[in-house]
Amino acid sequence: MSANPDDRLRLPPREPILNLPAAVVWLIAALVLVQGAREFLDAYDDFVVMSWLAFVPARLSLWLEPERLNELVQSLGTSGSTEFGQRLQLIRLLLADGGPRLWTLVSYGLLHGSWLHLVSNVVWLAAFGSPVARRLGTARFLNLMALSTIAGALLHWWSRELDVLPLVGISAGVSGATAAAIRFVFSPGVHFGGLGHDEAVRAIPAEPLGSLWRNSRALLFIVIWFVTNILFGAGLVPILGEETSIAWEAHIGGFVAGLLLFPLLDRGPIRRR
Q1: What is the pLDDT of residue 230?
Q2: Do residues 34 and 111 touch, judged by C-beta distance below 8 A?
């Protein structure tokens, strides 16, 4: 025991309110910077940015199967209508170069439909991405985010092959991080207040995938997550302040990818049954 009475009265350091790992902070900063920069663009320039960075399912489909162009045109509706002409013009602008722009499988995550869309993703990223970033480290965390983002785009493309509406948002990557976090944050004895330190997070035994379904807290969270995404995606629950629909297929693709890829990137202990 210290002989200095001041040492006995010294309180432990307070945990910062926003105790986020550097990888999460820089990722959020990049997303805010991109969204803020788009505010200074006119409508046409912003559309150009969207055409180069957003993921468009029809673009990939027509690159793989050019003969489906007629099918795409027929899906636009009645020829001669105003809506048909607008959609046809959109297709011409989006598909002008005929290339797949494969980088958009990742870059779409940098764009968001609105500030509300961005804020909702940032909140989830801070909550569930932070413990994953602490456990995996910056490089493996960003790899998980990128691979989950790609998986989300591919499932979205598979379910909407000829959709010309751009897919935007980091939701698929965040869904992957959420699924990865489930593998250890719901372990017995773990409290969310103890997830703010790298060493503590890395010491938590991860749940094997086969055992995860016997963890009642993890299973309840997964059920609620899937039901919520399907309800929002089906339009059964209104989205406050938003006129666009949720690309729930992309969320599910990212979630499944994060759940399966986590053990390949994790270097922490595994819970033994």
Answers
A1: 83
A2: yes
Q: What is the pLDDT of residues 9-19, one digit of tens each?
A: 443 444 454 68
Over residues 39-72, the pLDDT tens digits come to 999 998 998 898 899 999 988 998 898 888 778 7
Residue 203 CB partners (closer than 8 Å, separation 6+): 268, 269
Average pLDDT estimate for 207-229: 88
55 contacts 149 by C-beta, under 8 angstroms: no
Contact 178, 184 (CB under 8 A): no
CATH class of 21-265: mainly alpha
Domain boundaries, the chain: 21-265
Nearest to 243 by CA among 116, 63, 79, 109: 116
Which helix (H) or strand (E) covers residue 148, if one does? helix 138-159
Whole-prediction pTM value? 0.85
What is d(CA 244, CA 84) in angstroms, rounded to the nearest whole number? Answer: 20
33 Cβ partners below 8 Å, 6+ apart? none
